[in-house]
Amino acid sequence: MTAIVVGRGALLFERNLMVYRRAWLMILSGFFEPLFYLFSMGIGLGHYVGKVPVAGAGLVSYGSFVAPALLASAAMNGATYESVNIFFKLKYAKTYDAMLSTPVGPTDIAAGEIAWTLFRGLLYAVGFLVVVAALGLVYSAWAVLALLAALLIGFAFAGLSVAGATFMRSWQDFEIFGLIQLPMFLFSSTFYPLSVYPQALQWVVRCTPLYNAIALMRTLMLGGVGWAQLVNVAYLAVMGLIGLAITRGRIGKLLLK
Amino acid sequence: MTAVAYAFRSYEFWLAYYRRVWRGSIVSSFVNPVFYLAAVGIGLGTLVNKSASPPGGVTYSHYVAPGLLVAAAMQIASTESTWPVMGSFKWTRSYYAMSATPLGPASIFAGHQLFIATRILVSATVYLAVIAAFGGIHSWLAMFAPAAALLTGLAFSAPIAAYAATAESDSAFSAILRFAIVPMFLFSGTFFPVTRLPTVLEWAAYATPLWHGVDLGRGLVLGTLGAAAALGHVAYLAVLAAAGLAVGRMTYTRRLQR
Amino acid sequence: MRMIGCVSPPSGGTLSILGLDPRRDGATIRAHLGVVPQLDTLDFELTVRENVIIYGRYFGLSRKELRCRADELLEFVQLDERADSKVEPLSGGMRRRLTIARSLVNDPDLLLLDEPTTGLDPQARHLVWDRLFRLKRRGATLVLTTHYMDEAEQLCDRLVVMDKGRIVAEGSPRELIGRYSTREVVELRFRDEPSLDLSTRVNGLARRIEALPDRTLLYTDDGDATADRIHELGLHPQSVLVRRSTLEDVFLHLTGRTLVDE
Q1: Is position C260 within any domain?
Q2: C237 with C135, same domain?
Q3: Using the beta-carbon criterion (under 8 Å), do B39 and A186 form an inter-chain contact?
Q4: What H or E segment, with its residue span, contains residue B232?
Q5: Closest partner CB to A50 (pick from B26, B40, B51)
Q6: Which of B63, B55, B48 is nearest to B197 (CA)?
Q7: How far is C-alpha A13 from the geometric centre of its chain's CA atoms?
Q8: Is residue C118 part of a domain?
Q9: Lowest mean pLDDT: which of A77-91, A98-112, B2-16, C2-16?
């Protein structure tokens, strides 16, 4: 069963490669967006902000402070956007109707699209890391693991957002994603350290998925990897698995009726 | 005169449509202002305010708020004049429904732009109210900030809609957003003075409509606007908007009569 | 169709609609037209009733007036029960009826219908025909394009056959059949490939003979007599069908049987 799913999912992967060969500009733009943010924050605002204290790494420049957070956020945004899109196409836009009339089933489609999403996310992560390292904003050899972390973050958010999408009734409900994503992006210690918040709020932020993703990425790239990172990893893995379980329970019911 | 009346009939369609989908824009119109001001103004502000010479010489939240007000206008203008325009030609074909009635291409175009203008004004007013709530208004001239946002918005929405009326697929839209709108948002003086940029980029920033809009809006809210600068900004933005409206009238006519 | 609807400029010749010049009075003309476009232009975000109302607003009709008018029109096209439904769940036939209801909102003097029943099931087609026929009886002028000859026969008083953008024939359905075809047609099917000399053998039995790969058509004024003659000749077709000549025969005769790709 699994082998078949993977095999047919690969067909979809192939189709996407074919489609995106012509839409390379779109692929490229996804690579530039986090870099634009990095330059804007690092060069522009960095001058005013100066050095930022990071536990385990000491004082770092503002650019290197935001870089890991931007990579984690990009992984989240990419995964959420794509997986909601996949679900939308599957349920409403009927993009896959032609495929569903062949031996390819909905699970194959979902598996293939998610694999594609993760692959795309990995490409971006590699590109971003190369630039960041070239700028000298990386202080730790653990940074190599940042690629794996990006994949894990992508998996965690993809799983949960596809699961969430199965509960949407109309496309306007999808705005809820924006309502969750934007505050997470803005408030999960992306642009300033947790210490800015009062104690109580700090604990609230610590519970958010993006905070865990950013904390993991930041220690990998700046230093100070410790046992706490196991908590981050476990948090993200469990989140992705729960999402997958929910999705599996609902997808057949929704699509094959 | 009738053309104006016709434009309002097309505008009415967009209002009726909006009554059905307004929930979808709650985030961009009402929630974004609060979130952005809190995160950037207050959160990031705690870091920036430690600087010996913060941008604009004021509290960072006061500096960044008018910038965000105008940048939001740009964002609403550019999303509302890309996919919805193409959709009205290709997907729902609602422009064609209108063109079978007394409404002509110019009125159809104008009605849609009026609707976008309304969206911008609502968003800018919400921003201004939030800015007022945390004491970020330094001058009575701030009451004209929504007008500055509106002018900036039209300098984007009219030319972009003029282009969207010629587009056969939406593939270029995300490129416009990511390679033009997002960089402008990040580098045209919304978050920090463009003088911080390398010289070449600094001059490029001066050429962007968003820089003119932000400088105008910020000058009004902080009360630092000089007459010459104001005139220059308004003229630049007005020329862009007028050119967009003129070209859009042409491209809409061509597309609808094809 | 788009030129008559005053949305495309005339490409040549002279065009006058309701006595007005579309180049100058486009908006005035459109105010008196109802248009049912080939592709529906309904708004999916709005309800059925709202679709009619907002369209009426384009004509500058008052909201109060439109509320009654919308109910009336929806009843006319039998959509009153779906008035508050969105457009999305409607079937193709319902959407078509809604487009027709919408096109009537301004009480048009001239109704333009571009392939009004293409893609509809037989029930929906007959309902649309019925409604269009009632409009006609009330004195409305309908201009419609169609690829269905039975539709043209049902609805048209005067029709124009177009081939590659040129008018090739013009008249009432009856006149056209009389002019370009015979009263009846005999269709012969043979079990085996018809022998080569078949056409020569049946020659003279009919005014015109058309040999197709699967059957042979004999255009004649008395089908039964022709069929009898065939049996007398000792031919034994697998089936013999005698039918009245239709507009379809006229159309195929005038424009040929080869596929025309638009």
Answers
A1: no
A2: no
A3: yes
A4: helix B227-257
A5: B51
A6: B55
A7: 19
A8: yes
A9: A98-112
Using the predicted structure, report yes or no on whether residue A254 has a pLDDT greater than 70: no
Give me the residue label for tokens 């909601």.
A84
Bridge partner residues of C186 (DSSP): C218, C242
Helix A209-222, helix A175-187: angle, nearest 10: 40
Q: Read off the DSSP letter of residue C194.
A: P
Give the pLDDT confidence of C3-18 residue by residue, as tens digits: 777 777 777 788 888 8
Range of the structural domain that residue C196 is part of = 182-244
Most confident of A1-5, A80-84, A147-151, B88-92: A147-151
- In total, how many domains does chain C have? 2
| The predicted structure's pLDDT at residue C1 | 74
* CATH code of C110's domain: 3.40.50.300
pLDDT (tens digit per residue) in C218-256: 888 887 888 787 777 777 777 888 888 888 888 888 887
- Across the interface, of A29, A36, A52, the residue whose CB is closest to B186 is A36
Report residue C38 as tokens: 């080939």
**Contacts A183 to B, Cβ<8 Å:** 35, 39
Residue matched to tokens 């040549």: C12
Q: What is the CA radius of gyration of chain B?
A: 19
Tokens of A63: 């650019």
Does residue C256 sit within a domain? Answer: no
Note whether C148 and C216 are same-domain residues. no
Structure tokens at C150: 């039975």
Contact C204, C213 (CB under 8 A): no
Identify the burial level of C143 via C-beta atoms within 10 angstroms of its C-beta, where 0-12 means exposed, 13-18 middle and 19 or more buried: middle
CB contact under 8 A, C58 and B256: no
**Same structural domain for residues C83 and C135?**
yes
pLDDT value at position C180?
Answer: 81
CB contact under 8 A, C58 and B98: yes
Q: What is the ipTM of this complex?
A: 0.89
Inter-residue contact A95 to A145 (CB < 8 Å): no
pLDDT digits 0-9 by tens, A219-243: 999 888 888 899 999 999 999 899 8
pLDDT of residue A3: 45
